[in-house]
Design a protein that fits this description.
Blueprint: E1 4-6, E2 20-25, E3 41-45, E4 66-69, E5 71-77, E6 88-94, E7 97-102, E8 105-110, E9 118-124, E10 129-135, E11 138-143, E12 168-173, E13 181-187, E14 194-199, E15 206-212, E16 243-248, E17 256-259, H1 279-291, E18 310-314, E19 319-324, E20 327-332, E21 340-345, E22 353-358, E23 364-369, E24 390-396, E25 399-406, E26 423-426, E27 433-437, E28 443-447, E29 455-462, E30 475-481, E31 484-489, E32 493-499, H2 507-514, E33 516-518, E34 520-521, H3 535-547, H4 553-567, H5 571-589, H6 595-608
Antiparallel strand pairs: 1-33, 2-3, 2-4, 4-29, 5-32, 6-7, 6-34, 7-8, 8-9, 10-11, 11-12, 12-13, 14-15, 15-16, 16-17, 18-19, 19-20, 20-21, 22-23, 23-24, 24-25, 26-27, 27-28, 28-29, 30-31, 31-32
């Protein structure tokens, strides 16, 4: 469940737009608290630094070179015993805790002190990839690997067919977060590569889980009813469908599959692109094509994808974005138990549609391409910008229209797995700003308010884990949570960052973002961002109007002074002053270059009077 609760009003003092800061850190700290690096170099630049400091960083597991721009690493905490050296996966949040998945189970970190997160619980229970979600007191963990056991044992499962194996969703009672209790599991025919928790406001007695399984279909001898035949051969085929699990909140042990929507039916094979080739490979391909013109093209499948990789639901608008192999799907989830496909897009530059994110107002949707499955280098200077990138679409009348691509812009080495992966919106008011993990491409923060021109505004990156061969590492997923940016680093543990003010982002905007608080957060159940009335919110709009030249400078300066004067008052005097200022700002907004933003500013001031 994702719910927002407002904090008290901010006491931020208005600041001018500051310049961007670049930090080049020579070594990564291996303890929880990251001290200042001895080789720290500070560079001030109103534009992205050139040459890009992310290029040529020193390799190393815990001593790699680092580059950060407009972002500060607050802490890096290595994984504990039994989890170190094993892939860290996705994140979920509850209260002051972050739950980090790992192919060996999951960890619960207390991030009350973000500079020194403490391990609350490590739960050893192998089964890749252990994607995690939390809803109230229930914790859900994905299991897909062949070695996952019902009893959480570490000895694996040797038999091809075994009733000791678990592939599906594990359910825990996390009422006591330090001692989660294993309640039950729901087995599925293709396991759970990922899953999405979906709350239904019309059904408060239950919560639902959309299960995306991408493994091969299990033998019916292991799980009765599983069939790998095509749907036209077997109506109960496990292909071309997702699973919907209903979990009764009062009795989660009765969780069960209630529907298997075939959201992929009738999709044809998507357009494909070729792998990148060097000149010798291109010459050989040309020779083959000349010798056999009829068979020169790549093989094509007769049908579309048979499974989804990940689904992001946005209950506030009744839609979901399904990243499903060769397609990006739009789903109607007004009936949560029975999602229906209402749109599909494909792109010859995309290889594997991986995840989705909506803009806060629901007018845009972004899909990621995990070309190579996260294990390949797709950010080299020889890789096209469109490969392993994001594709951005407008969403009008439930129809998706392509507008642009975005890719982390710094070339990476052939020893760094790098491709678009998981991220979330940062609650900057009046803008669409997203933080996203790119595996060993690090994390990139970009503004896609103008969907035709997405622009990077901050980043953090490390050198490769190994300088001689490709060893997996980097940010699996990175999400904004209650004022911090939290990243699950595949090989290096848990990273926590905080934004720094820059030419692209003022302290007022950051403070307004921090005013949006969550009790729990699963990024794949995207929450509607709502900002409480704070002085920082009003000033954030003022800063944006100044940056975009959307309002007369003298009027903005006067508004800042009058807002500060009103803030120093109290009681009815403050309310009267704010009401008068809001009325004046609304009048001035009518002639502003950016009238909608100017009215937002005036409304934010008026809300303070209430």
């Amino acid at each position: 469940m994702t719910s927002a609760r407002p904090l008290g009003p901010s006491r931020a003092i208005p600041t001018a737009l500051s310049v961007a800061a670049v930090l080049l850190v020579s070594a990564c700290a291996t303890t929880t608290l990251v001290p200042p690096a001895p080789g720290l170099v500070s560079i001030e630049s109103a534009a992205a630094p050139s040459p890009d400091p992310r290029v040529g960083l020193k390799a190393g597991l815990h001593d790699a070179g680092e580059a950060a721009w407009n972002l500060r690493l607050v802490s890096n905490t290595p994984s504990p015993k039994d989890f170190a050296g094993v892939t860290n996966s996705d994140l979920a949040f509850t209260g002051n805790y972050v739950i980090q998945g790992n192919y060996n189970g999951f960890m619960v970190w207390d991030m009350t002190n973000a500079a020194r997160p403490s391990l609350k619980k490590s739960f050893l229970c192998p089964a890749s990839q252990s994607d995690v979600s939390i809803y109230k007191n229930l914790l859900f963990v994905s299991a897909e690997g062949m070695s996952g056991r019902l009893d959480c044992g570490t000895q694996g499962v040797r038999d091809t067919v075994s009733h000791e194996r678990v592939r599906g969703i594990r359910i825990f009672d996390a009422t006591d977060i330090a001692n989660p209790k294993y309640i039950t599991n729901v087995q599925t025919c293709r396991g759970s590569h990922t899953h999405t928790v979906v709350s239904d406001p019309k059904d408060p007695e239950n919560v639902y889980i959309y299960v995306s399984g991408s493994a091969g279909v299990r033998s019916p001898s292991e799980l009765p009813g599983c069939s790998a035949l095509a749907p036209d051969q077997d109506a109960n085929s496990a292909l071309f469908r997702i699973e919907v699990i209903k979990v009764p909140l009062k009795d989660p042990a009765r969780a069960a599959i209630v529907s298997s929507p075939r959201i992929f039916n009738d999709l044809t094979a998507p357009p494909r692109h070729a792998e990148p080739m060097d000149s010798a490979q291109m010459a050989r391909a040309a020779a083959r094509a000349a010798a056999n013109p009829a068979g020169a093209g790549p093989p094509r499948r007769a049908g579309g994808p048979t499974q989804c990789h990940d689904i992001t639901v946005y209950p506030a608008i009744g839609l979901a974005g399904g990243a499903c192999g060769g397609y990006g799907l739009l789903l109607d989830i007004s009936n949560v138990a029975n999602p229906v496909r209402i749109g599909a897009v494909a792109d010859s530059n995309f290889s594997f549609w991986h995840s989705a994110t909506f803009s806060n107002d629901g007018s845009k949707i972004l899909f990621t391409d995990e070309w190579g499955g996260g294990s390949a280098p797709r950010c080299r200077s020889t890789d096209k910008m469109e490969w392993g990138a994001n594709a951005l679409f407008t969403l009008v009348d439930r129809k998706m229209t392509f507008k642009s691509y975005y890719k982390m812009p710094a070339p990476q080495t052939s020893f760094e797995n790098c491709v678009a992966h998981n991220g979330s919106l940062i609650p900057i008011p009046g803008r669409e700003v997203m933080v996203q993990g790119w595996y060993q491409g690090g994390i990139s923060i970009f503004d896609w308010t103008d969907i035709t021109k997405p622009t990077e505004i901050a980043y953090h990156d490390r050198g490769p884990v190994d300088g001689t061969k490709l060893v997996s590492g980097g940010s699996w997923s990175v999400y904004w949570y209650n004022g911090y940016i939290v990243s699950s680093e595949i090989a290096r543990g848990l990273d926590i960052f905080e934004l720094r003010p820059s030419a692209y982002l003022t302290q007022n905007e950051i403070d307004a973002a921090k005013s949006v608080r969550f009790e729990q957060l699963n990024a794949q159940e995207q929450p509607k961002l709502v900002w409480p009335a704070t002085f920082a919110l009003a000033r954030a709009y003022m800063d944006q109007l100044e940056r975009g030249k959307g309002q007369d400078g003298e009027k903005l300066a006067a508004a800042r002074l009058d807002l500060l004067a009103a803030e120093r008052l109290s009681g009815s005097a403050r309310s009267t002053a704010l009401t008068q200022l809001a009325n004046r700002l609304h009048a001035e907004a009518r002639t502003a270059k950016d009238a909608p933003k100017a009215h937002l500013m005036a409304s934010a001031v008026g809300d303070l009077a209430k």
